[in-house]
Amino acid sequence: MSETERKKVILSGIQPTGVFTLGNFMGPIRNWGPLQDEFDCIYFIADQHAITVRKEPAAFRKQTIESYALLLACGIDPKRSIAFIQSHNPNHAQLSWVLGCVTQFGELSRMTQFKDKAAKHADDINAGLFTYPVLMAADILTYNADVVPIGDDQRQHLELARNIAVRFNQRYGDTFTVPEGYFPKVGARIKSLQDPTKKMSKSDDNPNATVFILDDKDTIMRKFKRAVTDSDSEIRFAEGKDGINNLLTIYSCATGKTIEEAEKEFAGKGYGDFKLAVGETVADYLEPVRTEFARLMEDKTYLKECWTDGAQRAFRLSNKVLSKAYRKIGFVDYR
Ligand code: TRP
Fold first, then answer.
1. Which of 114, 139, 141, 152 maximizes ligand 1 atoms within 8 Å of its Cβ, making it the mutation to test the pocket?
2. Is the pLDDT of residue 16 over 90?
3. Which of 8, 116, 122, 293 has fewest C-beta within 10 Å?
4. Which CATH superfamily is 9-187+300-329 part of?
């Protein structure tokens, strides 16, 4: 790629809501590192979004720092990519105000996540919860991001961001890039170890259902030993064998082997041995992330340097777009 040819910008915000699961990791997250070759990457911890739900300040601060460290531990290189904390760049909130003025009340009322969250937090339906998608649009548009990797729960918000961009551009002239969603082809869907018909979830009530990427080896082994299988005894991928299918998928993801290769490897073996082997493999697979996370958490000076540098670069980049939007709107120039 020549120097004048710009790489596409990929952008994503991650809520500081605790450690990722093995399912998150084997889905989108393990692609983060490799994506840096193809795109200019911007990743941030969405702490401003997080406060739409009440948070205990000390725990919240700790979670934000841990989430940032996790971002780096999962392969984001803070030199090649821009990795920062949302509240460190004031331009998101600045642009959010402007975009709110081209967003209709009715549009925001139709957001299903707002309706769900309002029902769940009926005692605190704050205005931030309502305008959250506008801030998300600002996150994206203030960097002229081309692509936004999102899960299904964020499709409607991205669609709104696109509509806002188009509307602003129509009203004031070309200003914002209209972002596309990014839905990677690969990415395994990992199921709960306790109910393999359900997705593996961060918030499962059963502590053995979910493997977290910072779990230690003993914990990982315990969870796999207790994984639910079936009354058959053959290790093969087949209809009605959700538990075994899930374990084969996990094994194949962690080793890069195909399902067929895995089936051959374990032909004739019992479920008990198979579960132990998958547990060992996953523990080894996650070990580098855990080690790197621990190292980063021991080095707060370095972490702080990284997020400060990230915020400064994010600020400079977003300023260009924000200034352009301000001019188009008719705000008076002051420099
Ligand atoms: N709303 C997203 C979530 O809850 C997080 C987020 C905030 C985001 N800003 C973003 C994602 C911008 C992509 C782009 O997961």
1. 139
2. yes
3. 122
4. HUPs (3.40.50.620)
